[in-house]
Design a protein that fits this description.
By secondary structure, the chain is α+β, with helices and mostly antiparallel strands. It has five helices and 28 strands. The strands form six sheets. Strands 2, 3, 5, 10, 13, 14, 15 and 16 form an eight-stranded mixed β-sheet that branches. The protein has a five-stranded mixed β-sheet with strand order 17-12-11-20-21, with no helix packed on it. It has a five-stranded mixed β-sheet with strand order 22-19-18-25-27, with no helix packed on it.
Length: about 575
C-alpha cells in the first residue's frame, strides 16, 4: 500500500493547481481609434479594443503606437460582464528597423537572372572559340580524312577558321558588353536599395495587466496624448451693407484646420478641437531676482601647460418595391421644386469655465501625412459697429472697419480672416486672441465715399549764423475728411508728431493743432487720433503743427519705431 501515497499526493497537487488562477498570458489587442481631441499643440487619442478575456490574469498588449506618445498621459478604462480588474500599465519601446523595397528587390532579382543567362552565352562562345583554335593549330595531315589536305585547300581552311574566329570574337564582344551593362545596373539598383530603404519609425507597445473572475467579453479603452498634431483657427467675415439690407449685418464664421504627423492615421473617428494648450505648462513661470553691480575686469589666468590642455581636450570629447395598379392617365406633372442651397454642417460647442471644445459633425478621417482637414466650427449673425479710419500720413484713403463682440462661450484664437463685403472678396486679415465678451475690430477695405486729403500748410526753418545757435524747424499740416454717403459715418483720423528721448532735442506741439480726441493711440508715443460723427456731405478739418529744436552743429534723423507686441 505504500506506493499509493505518492500517487494520492500527486493527484491532490494537480487539483490544487487547477483551482489556482492561471499565470498571465500575452493577448494582443486588435484596436481602432474611436475619438481624437486635437489641441493647438498636441492631440489626445482614444483607442478601443473588443476582446475575449479568459479567466485569470492576462497581459493585454497594444502594439505599434506612436513613439511620441506621452507615457504620463496613459489612461485605461474598461467594462465587462464579469468582474474585471485593471493593474499596472507598462510602455515598451520598439526600435526602428529598415524595410526593403519590394520593387527594387524584384528588379535586382530579374537583373541577376539575366546576367546568368548572358554568362551561359559567354561560356558557350568561349568554348566554341577554344575549339576553333585547336582545329587551326592541328597540322595539315591531321585535317584530312586519313590523309593530309592538299596544298590547294589550305587557303580555304585558313579562311574558314579565320572567319569563324572573327564571328565568335564579335559575338563574345557583344555578350561581354551586355554583361558589363547588366553588372552596372545591378550595382546601381543595390546602391539605390541602400539609399531608399524606408526606415520604420520607432514605435511603442503598451502592456496592460488585466484579471477577470471568469471568461468574459470586455471593452478596453486606452487614451494617450501624442505630439505632432495641431489645429489652427481661421475665420470668414461677411459684411452686408447693400441697399436691400435694412441695417448692416455681419456673419462671422469660425473654422478649424487640423493637421497631424503623429505616425498613425485617424480613420473614421469622432474629432474634436479644444482651445486648451496641452504643452504650454501647468503653472506661471517663476520670476527670479536680478542683481545689479559694477562690472569688473576678469583677472588674467596663467596658461596651462600643453600636456594639461591636451588632457582637458580629451575629457570634453430593404424593402420591396410594390407594383403600381393600373390607373387612369395621370395629370400633367407638377414642376419640380426649386433647388435648395446646401447647408454646411458645423461643430457642437462644449464650453467650460476654463476651456472650450468643438466636436466636428459626423465622423472624420485625418491622414498622418500632414494633409489639412478643415471643417466649420460655428457661425454667428452679428450687428457690427461700423466706422471708417484713415492714416493720411501713410495713405489718403479711408478704410471701413467693423467692431464686433465675441458673444460665444469660447475665445477666438489667433488666425487669418477671409473678409467679404457685399458678396465680394476683399482680402485676408488677422485676428488676435479675443476672450468671451471682449471685442475686436475687422477691416473691410477702402471706402471710396469718404474722401481724405492731407496737405502741408507751412514748413519754416531758421538758418543759424554763429556757433552754438539752436536750429529750429516748424511744420504744419491740414487734413480734410468728407462724408459722401447718404447716411452718417463715424470717422477717425490718425496722425503723429515725432518724439525724442534726447534732452538736447525739443519737440513742441503748437497751439494751431486741433485738439485730439485721443492723445495717444495704444502704446504709440506721438500718435494721436481725431474722431467725429460726420453727417452726409459734412466735412471736417484737422490741423497738426509742431516745432523741433536741436543744436545747429548736429544733424537729426527720423526713425520709425515699431511697437513691440507680445505674440499670443
Amino acid at each position: 500500500m505504500r506506493p499509493l501515497v505518492p500517487l494520492a499526493r500527486a493527484a491532490s497537487a494537480l487539483a490544487l493547481l487547477a483551482a489556482l488562477p492561471a499565470l498571465a498570458d500575452d493577448l494582443e489587442a486588435v484596436s481602432k481609434i474611436a475619438a481624437v481631441v486635437v489641441y493647438p499643440d498636441a492631440a489626445s487619442v482614444t483607442r478601443v479594443a473588443e476582446i475575449d478575456l479568459p479567466q485569470g490574469a492576462t497581459t493585454l498588449i497594444f502594439r505599434g503606437l506612436p513613439a511620441g506618445l506621452d507615457p504620463a498621459s496613459l489612461r485605461v478604462a474598461g467594462q465587462a460582464v464579469a468582474a474585471l480588474a485593471i493593474g499596472a500599465v507598462e510602455t515598451r519601446a520598439t526600435p526602428a528597423k529598415t524595410t526593403p523595397s519590394t520593387e527594387l528587390e524584384a528588379q535586382i532579382k530579374a537583373l541577376r537572372a539575366e546576367r546568368e543567362s548572358v554568362q551561359v552565352t559567354i561560356d558557350a562562345l568561349d568554348g566554341k572559340k577554344q575549339m576553333m583554335r585547336r582545329y587551326g593549330e592541328a597540322s595539315p595531315e591531321k585535317l584530312g580524312e586519313g590523309k593530309p589536305l592538299e596544298v590547294g585547300q589550305w587557303a580555304a581552311a585558313w579562311d574558314a577558321v579565320g572567319a569563324g574566329l572573327a564571328k565568335v570574337n564579335e559575338e563574345l564582344r557583344l555578350a561581354n558588353a551586355q554583361a558589363r551593362e547588366i553588372d552596372e545596373k545591378i550595382a546601381a539598383a543595390e546602391s539605390a536599395r541602400q539609399r531608399a530603404a524606408p526606415r520604420v519609425a520607432p514605435r511603442r507597445d503598451v502592456a496592460i495587466a488585466l484579471e477577470a473572475d471568469a471568461a468574459t467579453k470586455a471593452t478596453v479603452r486606452l487614451t494617450y496624448n501624442v505630439a505632432g498634431a495641431s489645429w489652427k483657427a481661421s475665420y470668414d467675415a461677411r459684411l452686408d451693407t447693400s441697399a436691400s439690407a435694412t441695417k448692416p449685418a455681419l456673419e462671422f464664421v469660425r473654422r478649424a484646420a487640423v493637421t497631424q504627423r503623429t505616425g498613425e492615421d485617424w480613420t473614421d473617428v469622432e474629432l474634436s478641437v479644444s482651445t486648451t494648450r496641452a504643452n504650454r505648462g501647468v503653472a506661471a513661470p517663476e520670476v527670479q531676482p536680478v542683481r545689479l553691480y559694477f562690472w569688473e575686469a576678469p583677472v588674467p589666468v596663467a596658461m596651462a601647460r600643453p600636456a594639461a590642455r591636451a588632457g582637458a581636450a580629451q575629457d570634453m570629447a430593404g424593402g420591396k418595391m410594390m407594383e403600381a395598379a393600373p390607373a387612369a392617365p395621370a395629370p400633367a406633372a407638377a414642376p419640380p421644386p426649386p433647388p435648395k442651397p446646401a447647408v454646411e454642417q458645423q461643430a457642437t460647442l462644449e464650453a467650460g469655465a476654463f476651456q472650450a471644445s468643438f466636436k466636428a459633425p459626423g465622423r472624420m478621417s485625418v491622414p498622418a501625412d500632414g494633409a489639412q482637414k478643415s471643417f466649420r466650427v460655428s457661425a454667428r449673425a452679428l450687428t457690427p459697429d461700423l466706422s471708417v479710419k484713415a492714416s493720411p500720413l501713410m495713405e489718403e484713403t479711408a478704410y471701413l472697419e467693423a467692431k464686433i463682440v465675441n458673444d460665444e462661450e469660447a475665445p477666438l484664437l489667433p488666425g487669418d480672416v477671409a473678409v467679404f463685403r457685399d458678396g465680394g472678396f476683399v482680402g485676408t486679415g488677422r485676428v488676435g486672441l479675443v476672450a468671451p465678451g471682449d471685442s475686436t475690430t475687422l477691416g473691410f477695405g477702402a471706402d471710396d465715399r469718404v474722401k481724405v486729403t492731407r496737405v502741408p500748410v507751412r514748413r519754416k526753418e531758421n538758418e543759424p549764423t554763429w556757433l552754438g545757435q539752436t536750429r529750429t524747424e516748424i511744420r504744419e499740416f491740414k487734413t480734410t475728411v468728407k462724408n459722401l454717403h447718404a447716411f452718417p459715418v463715424r470717422a477717425t483720423i490718425v496722425d503723429q508728431i515725432p518724439f525724442t528721448e534726447n534732452s538736447a532735442i525739443v519737440v513742441e506741439q503748437l497751439p494751431a493743432t486741433t485738439a485730439p480726441t485721443e492723445k495717444q493711440v495704444g502704446d504709440k508715443r506721438g500718435v494721436m487720433a481725431w474722431a467725429w460723427d460726420l453727417q452726409p456731405n459734412e466735412q471736417k478739418e484737422v490741423r497738426l503743427a509742431y516745432r523741433m529744436k536741436w543744436p545747429a552743429d548736429r544733424d537729426v534723423v527720423f526713425e520709425t519705431m515699431p511697437v513691440q507686441r507680445t505674440q499670443r
